[in-house]
Write a structure and sequence with these properties.
Blueprint (H helix, E strand, L loop, with lengths): L1 E9 L4 H21 L8 E7 L2 E9 L6 E9 H4 L8 H10 L7 E5 L2 E10 L4 H15 L19 E8 L2 E2 L3 E2 L2 E2 L3 E3 L8 E3 L6 H6 L7 H17 L4 E2 L3 H8 L6 E6 L9 H12 L2 E4 L5 E9 L6 H27 L14 E3 L3 E2 H19 L4 H10 L7 H5 L6 H9 L4 H9 L14 H20 L13 H14 L6 H11 L6 H21 L4 H5 L13 H11 L5 H15 L15 H22 L3 H8 L3 H10 L7 H19 L11
Antiparallel strand pairs: 1-3, 1-7, 2-3, 4-6, 5-6, 7-8, 9-10, 11-12, 13-15, 14-16, 15-16, 17-18
Helix pairs in contact: 1-4, 8-9, 10-11, 10-15, 10-17, 11-14, 11-15, 13-14, 14-15, 15-16, 15-17, 15-18, 16-18, 17-18, 20-23, 21-25, 22-23, 22-24, 22-25
Length: about 700
């Protein structure tokens, strides 16, 4: 078995592309190797990526392809053989082209007809002869969000390709891409070891690069970076501020990571921590340091791409740059504090939200209208706080800091609100209106923030649906799917009695579309489609989810987990199977008939009268239990209808010839179904 080494040397690749490209290269090459019979089960593949290279090592490649046989279809059987079953000229020519004798041809069905087929034996080729095409095709198949051409070449790639290293053990795999010939040459660190050098065999690749100041394995670079962050922060009795995203970025910015501890003047600690950290991270990719109580220290850590001996130079440059950046941030922050948020609201009139939706001021008015209705219905005691927070919610978007650092929207709004004397609940709501930004993020922590977060997203969804800009396929330029998921996650966790139906009504009203039923229906369907995936992620089975989905418009979403938990437990009860069959019989016979009143005087048969008595005996108890969300006891109570329902179906002909009797029996079954449906749609549940 042999080892394949493949490296594409390029100009500096943007850090955000490297990890995905490494995975893609591994997938493409291994798939093509497998198709060629060169990737047995025992084979392994390891991908690497640095700013200047994408690489792959595949171990366990056989020296030769296995011999293989394949079927080659030829002309239709009726053309290939005459009426006596002898091969025609067409069959002979096909056999000759396939390299078999005419008598070796067989007949097989394919599609709608029968065709002749030849079993062609193919001799396996040396792996070295097959690999050039595989590697070339893999490079050309790599995809990136942005690509470029260079020189006179035709290839498009993320950055110009400068060299290709391709070895099978120690043998060069020879091929060419746009005039660049593969070889056994690679390059070390651009500044510390810039001269090209030979890699004598694939197994020496990692160690050869390391002697040339390249740590090619991303996992090893990450370990070195994390170790340096911890070690250097400890020297000032601190810890690195947690930031997995920044670590992941820096891993793909350097080839030889070396941490350097730096310092900035303490006077800048008067600025908000979030602002300082954003400046360090956003522009410079520096790591903040905190003390054991979570307070920011006037230190930061740079991960350089050079030797430790150059640390003083790195430190001096980094400290000059960060001081200038902090000075700019302080200027914007002090300017922003000179005006209250209220004084910035009118400035929103000059900022376009969308050409067909007006300005950010118009957006604010809609936000106020929706948030006010939610507050009046769900938490009237905080109505004034919600109204104030909604008015100021977008005012920080015209501040100097947020213009420079858009990711601080809401966060800076909180600081400016507090500086202007606003209540803390209002300031917190302004900050938390954007939570959760992504799946897994924390939810808004207060009722006022919850109302504002819901109102903002519902207005966004309703507005773009109104304009006909709903997501299509993979296109979702306004992140409406993510916002829909945020709305539903909030509603599932909130203590407020809010239904999707009412929220959509208020969002449509904010646009002046109260009577637009088509719009409201489209928005509800969009939100409803997101709900099953959220509930599945919480561990609920598809049939359990389906049993409560019809309630999502009219029942507060916060009630659904309780109903589903009760159903999960109910499934384990002794009478579940019998009850499920009884409910499905009821549902099947009433279908979608309108429910009418039951007339007791028309209940002539003993079993239907007994069913009616059993139904009326449990009806109020089930309703009372449902009203206090005791769904498990409500279901246990419904179990009392098992025997009466089955007795009814065994003894009574529902579809009686007399219309009045028939309709009355259907009305009784309909009333039972309606009562059960107030808990869940049991017809959607599966048997154990």
């Amino acid at each position: 078995m042999k080892k394949l080494l493949f490296e594409i040397g390029v100009e500096e690749i943007p850090a955000r592309f490297i990890a995905a490209a490494s995975v893609d290269l591994k997938r493409l090459v291994t798939e093509k190797l497998a198709a060629a019979g060169l990737f047995p089960e025992s084979a392994t593949a390891e991908a690497f990526g640095t700013p200047r290279r994408l690489a792959l090592i595949v171990s366990g490649i056989p020296e030769m392809q296995p011999d293989r046989s394949r079927e080659v279809f030829g002309p239709p059987a009726k053309v290939a053989f005459d009426e006596n079953g002898k091969p025609t000229k067409a069959a002979e020519k096909f056999a000759q082209s396939a390299g078999v004798a005419p008598e070796q041809l067989a007949v097989k069905e394919k599609g709608q007809g029968k065709y002749v087929v030849a079993l062609v034996q193919e001799k396996g080729l040396p792996a070295k002869d097959v690999l050039p095409a595989i590697l070339r095709e893999a490079v050309l198949a790599l995809s990136f969000q942005k690509t470029m051409r260079w020189g006179d070449g035709e290839i498009r790639f993320v950055r110009p390709i400068r060299w290709i290293l391709a070895l099978l053990d120690s043998d060069v795999i020879e091929f060419e891409l746009d005039g660049i010939k593969s070889a056994n040459l690679t390059r070390g660190h651009r500044f510390l070891s810039p001269v090209a050098f030979q890699v004598r065999e694939a197994g020496l690749y990692k160690s050869s690069l390391e002697t040339s100041f390249i740590i090619v394995e991303p996992e090893k670079r990450r370990s070195l970076i994390e170790a340096d962050l911890t070690r250097l922060a400890a020297t000032v009795e601190g810890v690195p501020a947690p930031d997995e995203e920044l670590v992941g970025t820096v891993v793909n910015l350097v080839e030889y990571p070396v941490g350097v501890l730096c310092e900035f003047p303490r006077e800048y600690l008067e600025l908000p921590d979030e602002l300082l950290i954003t400046v360090m991270k956003g522009h410079q990719k520096y790591f903040a340091v905190k003390d054991d109580k979570g307070r920011l220290l006037n230190n930061f850590i740079v991960i350089s791409n050079t030797l430790k001996e150059n640390s003083l130079v790195v430190r001096g440059g980094a400290e000059r740059v960060i001081k200038a950046r902090f000075e700019d941030a302080r200027f914007y922050y002090r300017e922003d504090l000179s005006r209250k948020l209220e004084d910035r609201v009118d400035a929103l009139k000059k900022v376009a939200y969308h050409e067909k939706l007006g300005s950010l001021y118009d957006k604010t008015l809609r936000l106020q209208a929706i948030a006010s209705k939610i507050a009046q219905a769900a938490c009237p005691e905080i109505y004034q706080e919600v109204e104030r927070a909604a008015r100021l919610a977008k005012a920080d978007l015209v501040s100097g800091v947020v213009k420079e650092f858009p990711e601080l929207q809401g966060i800076m709004g909180r600081y400016y609100a507090l500086a202007g004397g606003e209540p803390e609940t209002v300031a917190d709501a302004i900050m938390e209106q954007y939570l959760p930004r992504f799946t897994g993020d924390a939810l808004p922590s207060s009722p006022a923030a919850t109302v504002l977060a819901l109102a903002d997203r519902l207005d966004n969804i309703a507005s773009f649906f109104y304009l006909g800009l709903a997501p299509t396929g993979s296109e979702d330029p306004f992140a409406l799917r993510r916002q829909a998921i945020a709305v539903e996650n909030i509603l599932l966790e909130t203590s407020q009695d809010l239904t999707l139906g009412r929220l959509i009504e208020w969002a449509a009203a904010g646009l002046g579309q109260e009577g637009n039923e088509a719009l409201k229906s489209e928005i509800f369907r969009f939100l409803e489609l997101r709900l099953p995936q959220i509930l599945e992620a919480r561990g609920y089975a598809p049939d359990v989810i389906e049993s409560v989905m019809k309630m999502s418009a009219s029942v507060p979403l916060k009630d659904l987990p309780g109903r589903m938990d009760a159903i999960v437990r109910f499934k384990k009860s002794q009478g579940y199977g019998t009850f499920l069959m009884a409910m499905k019989r009821v549902r099947n016979i009433i279908a979608d008939r309108a429910i009418t009143e039951v007339h007791e005087k028309l209940l002539k048969e003993e079993k239907e009268a007994a069913l009616y008595r059993a139904f009326t005996g449990v009806r109020e108890k089930v309703r009372e239990l449902a009203a206090v969300a005791d769904y498990e006891k409500a279901m246990e109570t419904l179990l009392e209808l098992n025997v009466p329902i089955n007795n009814f179906f065994d003894a009574v002909l529902v579809m009686d010839k007399k219309a009045a009797v028939r309709d009355n029996r259907l009305a009784l079954l309909g009333a039972i179904w309606t009562l059960a449906l107030s808990i869940a749609d049991f017809s959607r549940l599966s048997e154990i």
